[in-house]
Each structure stands twice: as structure tokens, then as C-alpha cells.
Amino acid sequence: MSIKKEGAHKKWAALKEKLGPQDTDQSEANLENAEPELCIRLLQMPSVVNYSGLKKRLENSDDVWMVQFLELCGLDLLLEALDRLSGRGVARISDALLQLTCINCVRAVMNSHRGIEYIVSNEGYVRKLFQALDTTNVMVKKQVFELLAALCIYSSDGHGLNVKNQQYRFSVIMNELSNTDNVPYMVTLLSAINAIILGKEDLRTRTQIRNEFIGLQLLDILDKLR
After folding, report:
1. CB atoms within 10 A of CB 107
2. Is the pLDDT of residue 53 over 80?
3. CA–CA dist 186, 131 (Å, integer)
4. Domains (ranges, CATH) in the chain?
5. Closest CA to 130 of 92, 187, 170
């Protein structure tokens, strides 16, 4: 019996060797030790494989690596790609998956101290992040609102950055809350509203923001959700 098992193992090993790269896990690019320059080049070839590999590299990077990545416009490339993908809609599953893996890379940048500081100090990035809400992909919008909420909590100017240039402040988030029946998405939206209100230390400003939400029928929507 052991001889048969040994023979089977040898056949399996030979088959794997014959298959070569086709039998390896190609779900993500191997960027474990990649320099920022290589990652930038790969970003110019958007794919789920490249984004997934980059996400892992970003999560495991040190401050020096992250700063180099940002200075080489890595975040710009991610947000520009996200904007292009949002403009396509989600007619194809492949585009939806690309959007998700791309926004996951942005999240990985924001999860680093250097990354979130870089975003907060550059209003253009927050504006580009806001533009990513122009999509029908609820999962992407959910993650964008989570990131915007994090900015509100991290910086006292966070919500000001988020809503600047909006004709009616907070109308975007309230429209989303009114028109969705996706419970996890509702929770994210309500958490974002809470973060916007609590993001300001001044009680008077908090009250003003809260009243703006009430003016947009927040209480009526909450009653419907109960």
C-alpha cells in the first residue's frame, strides 16, 4: 500500500512540474519585496492580480517605502483608476472586482500614518475619493464612505474636506441612505453621519451639523428604519 502511495505522490509531483506556472496561485502578484518604482509601473497595467499584490505590499510597507510610493504619485494613480472604473458602471463583473481591489489599495494607504497624513494635507485627494461615489457598485460606495468617515475622526477638518464644493452639504450621504435597502450599507452610512457630527470638538459646530442633517429628514429616515 505504501508503495502505491509513493507512486501516486511521484506522479502528482511530475504532473505539477509539467503544469508549471499554470498550477501556481495567480490570484495576486508577488510584490513582497518590490520597490515602489516597480509597483508604480504595475499600476499602469490595472488588473485584479496587480492590485491584490499591491495591497499586500502596502499593508506590509514601512514609512520610508510608503513615502516613496506617495512621492511617485502612487495614490494619484489609484484614485485616477478608481475614477475611470466608476465611469464605466458595473455592467461587467470584472469591472466591479477591479473597483473593489483598487479601493482596497487606497484603504491600505490610509491605514498607514504616512498615508492618511498625506491625504489630509492634500484636499485634491479627498475630492477624488468623493468622486468615486459616482458608481452603482454599492460595495465600493460602502468602502468610500468608511474611508471618508475615518478622515472625519482622524482630522478635525475631515468633514470640511469631505463636503467642500458640495452645493448642499451632506445631501449625497442622505440620498444614499434614503434610497438603499442594503442593511450593511445603511450601517456604514449612519456611522459616517455619526463621524461627521462627532468629528468636530466644538459643541456648537456639532449642533449645527446635526441640525443640517435633521433638515434633510434624517429623523424621518431613522423612524422608517426602526
Report:
1. 18
2. yes
3. 20
4. 28-225 (1.25.10.10)
5. 170
